[in-house]
Amino acid sequence: MNIERIKDELAQAWTVAVKDVRVYYLRPGMIMFGFLMPFFMFFSFSVKRDVGAAEGVARLLAMAVFFTAGAAGPFIIPTERKIGTYDRLLAAPMSLLTLLLGKTAVGAFFAVAVSGVSLLAGLLFFGAEVIQPGLLAAGILLAAFSFSTLGLAFGSMPTTNPGDVQMPSTLLRWGLLFISGVFIPLSEMSPVARAIAYLSPLTYAQDVMNHAVLGSGLLNPWLDLSMLALSGLLFLFPSVKMHQRARVLGR
Amino acid sequence: MTHAIEVENLTKYYDKFLAVDHINFAVEQGEIFGFLGPNGAGKTTTQRMLTTLLTPTEGRIMINGHDLSHDSYPAKRRIGLVPEESNVYTELTAWDNLMFTASLYRVPRGERAKRAQELLEIFGLWDKRDIKAENFSKGMRRRLSIAMAIIHKPSLLFLDEPTPGLDAQSIRAIWELIRKMNAEGTTVFITTHQIEEANQLCGRVAIISHGKIAAIDTPERLKADFRRAQSVEVALDGEVAGKGAGLESLLGVTTHVKVGDKMRLYTEDPSALIPRVVQYAESNHLRIISLNTLSPSLEDVFLEITGGQLGAVSKEEEKPAKRGVGGRK
């Protein structure tokens, strides 16, 4: 692939992402599953509990990125398959990876925006401080990438009904939420529970937020960032496979 | 010169269902090629394979000399696709839909606006460029969908059922545009079950039935090959209750169909049948209001090939070419 082609592909991914932002960000499905859900979950598990401002902000940031980034894929792709606009993208002269990159960016942008609002609220209204801003930015970006590709894996299922995808994806995300170190710190978990928690990428997102906002975490922050990047790349594989499968099935 | 499309042994199974059965055909550069068949014959499946949306089970597709199985990128750059459903982004304006597609197909930045304006003017949508497509009629969305498919000036345009459900004015406008693009060098591949559309537009037609190509030729040669589908059409005046009864049993009539107040008698030899019709009228004291011989219509050919009954579909869809002079008394 030559330089011109790479530039074209990046521009196409950007074009897809910007179009999706304009078309889908204000759709009820995105607002419900992407914007309101993390706040509902946060307040459900934090109100009237002994949670400090910094700890609360770190938790809200992790949940905001987790739910918001993963909301786009399961909503947008089946919707586009249903109305036929996805064919326009599949038939366009760009690689499947470029299309998936564009779709990943949509969820990631959404997550960055919502976590930015959450952070601002935490700083302004709860007096929280960010100890390591650079680490926080890197953590949010890589977590947004990882969770967006997770959502994309669900969105890539060969179906034209968003409902077929959103329910299982929401269930999985809740499962990952409960096994991760969001509500119970890793240090307080039993060895078995901690071993299970390491399976969830949200654990690493929460740990890196703790480093950035609280100034301490259990794992090495570089390990957290690496695991988020790695999980994001791994989640792309099922997306690619399911797209190939959809082309065989004709869906 | 390489073919615009070359298909070898193309096959598609959906699980165990054979949708396209080892078909072969080639489309020349600059042709308008019709892919005609009844619903479920395999037309759309074939077109989806030709446009990379569907992976073939078997066979090879070459688009402008590029094998789609491993060299699809250059082929995709030169393809335009108008799917059956007008897949425009209803939340975007007509202008934004076109600019999005122009960017997706990497139309040079400086040309996008000019090209979008040109197309919106051609399709009569310039005044509505800032209106969201959700407020457009079906015909307007169709026109926008076609404009989006050709903004990058493709050398090969695929249209899947381009006109069903549209008003006559929109159909005519789309047909004119297809002819114009073809005249400028674009190869056009039309998938349709509308026989008149194929008859009006296509230089060659392939008729697909049950996943196989049953015939492929120019519309006129296809008609000429089907002598069985020639007919004599007669309108009689006389006692209403009995008029025309018994015509179908005249020697040489293969099948018949009542068309309004006329009877169409299919035969391989119209010149032999005409005297028998006249004799029948005289012996039954019936006046012949009109008597015409009809060459086979593409619809007749289509029905013969696809196993339908001659004259069983809408008679308004195609007017067969009349050879005789009516009004004989």
Oligomer: heterodimer
Broad shape of chain A: globular
Please give the count of helices of chain B: 10
Level-1 CATH class name of the largest domain in chain B = Alpha Beta
Walk me through the structure:
The complex is a heterodimer of chains A (251) and B (329). Chain A has one domain. Chain A is 79% helix and 0% strand. Chain A has eleven helices and no strands. In chain A, helix 2 packs antiparallel against helix 3 and helix 7 packs parallel to helix 11. With 329 residues, chain B is an alpha/beta fold. Helices cover 32% and strands 27% of the residues of chain B. A six-stranded mixed β-sheet of chain B has the order 6-7-8-3-9-10, sandwiched between helices. In chain B, strands 2-1-4-5 form a four-stranded antiparallel β-sheet. In chain B, strands 12-13-11-14 form a four-stranded antiparallel β-sheet, covered by helices on one side. In chain B, helix 3 crosses helix 4. The N and C termini of chain B lie far apart (56 Å). Chains A and B meet through helix 1, helix 5 and helix 11 of A and helix 2 and helix 3 of B.
Quick overview:
The complex is a heterodimer of chains A (about 250) and B (about 325). Chain A contains eleven helices and no strands. By secondary structure, chain A is an all-alpha fold.
Topology:
The complex is a heterodimer of chains A (251) and B (329).
Chain A: H1 3-24, H2 28-46, H3 53-69, H4 72-83, H5 85-91, H6 96-125, H7 133-155, H8 162-179, H9 191-197, H10 201-214, H11 221-249
Helix pairs in contact in A: 1-6, 2-3, 3-6, 3-7, 3-10, 4-7, 4-8, 6-7, 7-10, 7-11, 10-11
Chain B: E1 5-14, E2 17-27, E3 32-36, H1 43-50, E4 58-63, E5 66-67, H2 72-77, E6 79-82, H3 94-104, H4 109-122, H5 138-150, E7 156-160, H6 168-183, E8 187-192, H7 195-201, E9 204-209, E10 212-217, H8 219-225, E11 231-237, E12 253-259, E13 262-267, H9 270-283, E14 287-294, H10 298-306
Parallel strand pairs in B: 3-8, 3-9, 6-7, 7-8
Antiparallel strand pairs in B: 1-2, 1-4, 4-5, 9-10, 11-13, 11-14, 12-13
